[in-house]
Amino acid sequence: xxxxxxxxxxxxxxxxxxxxxxxxxxxxxxxxxxxxxxxxxxxxxxxxxxxxxxxxxxxxxxxxxxxxxxxxxxxxxxxxxxxxxxxxxxxxxxxxxxxxxxxxxxxxxxxxxxxxxxxxxxxxxxxxxxxxxxxxxxxxxxxxxxxxxxxxxxxxxxxxxxxxxxxxxxxxxxxxxxxxxxxxxxxxxxxxxxxxxxxxxxxxxxxxxxxxxxxxxxxxxxxxxxxxxxxxxxxxxxxxxxxxxxxxxxxxxxxxxxxxxxxxxxxxxxxxxxxxxxxxxxxxxxxxxxxxxxxxxxxxxxxxxxxxx
Length: 309
Description:
The protein is an alpha+beta fold and 309 residues long. The chain is built from 6 helices and 11 strands. Helix 3 packs antiparallel against helix 5.
């Protein structure tokens, strides 16, 4: 019995050794040549050449038609203000209005505050209708130094906030303190709903030129090829043909960066180096002021062949 089990174990071990020998890289070298995959990169950095500012405007009142007309009017006024501030005309965007109704519990609280004191005729209607729209535009920053860009952005932000101050559709009574308190409560609720009332979101951008990207890709490819050659020499091999080549763009140094707005995948470039490419539009963006850094990467795979004598 022991002899039979020993023979079975020997057969299994012999089969396992044979499978490992056949499946080894050396045994498969004739069918599947070895290859090496490496990455090379080049950093592009520069100050933004434009900034896009986004904020929200709001109108509120008791009558939807009146509030909508007031919001449309304010939109036209802000459009003129943005042009006066130097915004690019084709970049100005106003979103469709968003309708919000004050929650019943808040409406009940503000209704009590909005009522006239005793002895005065009439009551002020509750502002239970709130309309909000976002407005955005782009301003050029090209050619300015850091100090000039900071000052320019500060002026734009202040001008946009002044143009987007909240108002109430309809007539106001300057002595109506209770009504002001009710309006303030409604405004705080609306700010929580929209998150942009009375604030400006800034997005800095820098367009990457085709020549700039082309030079960066060539540098990255050269570094990747040099790394592949070093690995090949270390393993006693030489580089063969280029199998695959991929390019990537990613932001660096800013967790709020959104990177670039274009991506290119596999490219049929030759092993001697990438040819000149033409990109319609590449744009680095970031929410923080300062140089925008983009890492241009290439990922390459080469076949390996045995080194000659």
